[in-house]
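Shipment paperwork, digital attachment
Item: protein structure file
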Amino acid sequence: MNSRKDPLAKIRHLLTGPPVDLRKIARELGINIWESKSLPENIAGKLTTDPQKAGTSGFAIIVRREDRLARKNFTIAHEIAHFLVHSHLLADGEIADRAEPGRKELYRSNLSTSMEGRANIIAADILMPWSLFAPLINEGKSNLEALFQVSRAMVDIRLASPVVRRLKRGVQISPELEAHFKTIVEKWNKDTRHTSSLTKMITHPTYTRIIEIGPKVLPLLFRELNERPNHWLVALNAITREDPAPAGSTFGEAMQAWLAWGRDRGYLK
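Attachment content:
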């Protein structure tokens, strides 16, 4: 079903708490975590293939022992994010800051802004998953810091997210978009009513037209899925580039996982 790979698919079942247990996630991924007194102040941590420190995955994360807990947590989550999406590049030496026989290291000086930005986003989703954060958005910032064991800066960034604005204010849907969506869905239902082929359903021109509308159609898509369950999961996956459904889920289980994802992000009441 996945047209886009969800970077958190392997660990989504471990995003519980708060706080999220980062060391449990690392163990699940086969990553050893070490604390070091020798890292300079300008390097909070690194991802390494050092065989003397690596876990079963062939990787280890090293963090500065002197850093505060919130800083260490962000560093660990950030390096886990790099492992999830960039480990193959580091193993090949393409993004290594330091490369020696049998050991390659990444400590962020050699990455593009987009790669670092993606790692930051994934790190925030690991430390403060919306399933845990959404019910607590009206808590005080100090309480959120303590609950999730993160910095005030991370809490501020999370609270400034469009997701929080949707959760607090709801979503605004234009009548024109709603009418357009209804017309497309009706035609899709009519044209695919007698087919049992999922491939034909999701490649139908009206289905792809919904995907092409992009993120602004998500509230309508989640409402449609909730009220009239049908094969909209591929469209959701294509638009959001995520897949919250655990591997091996039935359609019903996957649908419920998606509806929970939509509620957590303010797309569905």
